[in-house]
Structure prediction request, 211 residues.
Amino acid sequence: MADELVLYTNPMSRGRIARWMLEEIGQPYRIELLDYGSTMKAPAYLAINPMGKVPALRHGDAVVTEAPAICAYLADAFPQAGLAPPPGHRLRAPYYRWLFFSAGPVEAAVSNKALGVVVPAERERMVGYGNFAVTVDTLERAVANGYLAGDSFTAADLYVGAQIGFGMMFGALDRRPAFERYWQRVSSRPAYERAKTLDEAQAAEAKKAAG
Ligand SMILES: N[C@@H](CCC(=O)N[C@@H](CS)C(=O)NCC(=O)O)C(=O)O
Prediction:
């Protein structure tokens, strides 16, 4: 089908972010479930994403990988969902700013923290996130006053919210009051609940099938 939306995912992965976004836009989509280490590294999937990682989204003959890029792509491809300021609008500035800040500095700072990697003070200038503390403080200030780009929820809130919610869940981020409030706000959306229910059902099924 020319415009079919297919999400390549695993329910225990960042694919949950992409599924949430698909539920937000409300278009029909199909799931291709991949297993870690087997189908995710098989030639058929490597032809879609040579990284052998999920998520990936196919929309007709277009492929987009990277969870934040999938969110941004879907918001633009389906503007009727109202999940991004229009291209060229001034609100596109904070929208891009926090989406990219979260995908770059926050993701790297949190991963390094989990791995016990500490950037020596004299090398902070060459590392995009500087240090963990300044990155997390900046993130906290960004989400302290509501949505990130204007008065309504956008794909930036979805992606940043997921980083915060999942980060707190896995202990990579402190449960600061501003993070808790923001996560409460974004995760109370019906689309989040639907996506979570679908992913959890698929995870339970996979577990049962594995015995
Ligand atoms: N930068 C990618 C990261 C994707 C990623 O690392 N996915 C993990 C699951 S959360 C994965 O597929 N791991 C499988 C592997 O590396 O073998 C994104 O944001 O989508």
Remarks:
- The first strand starts at residue 5 and ends at 9.
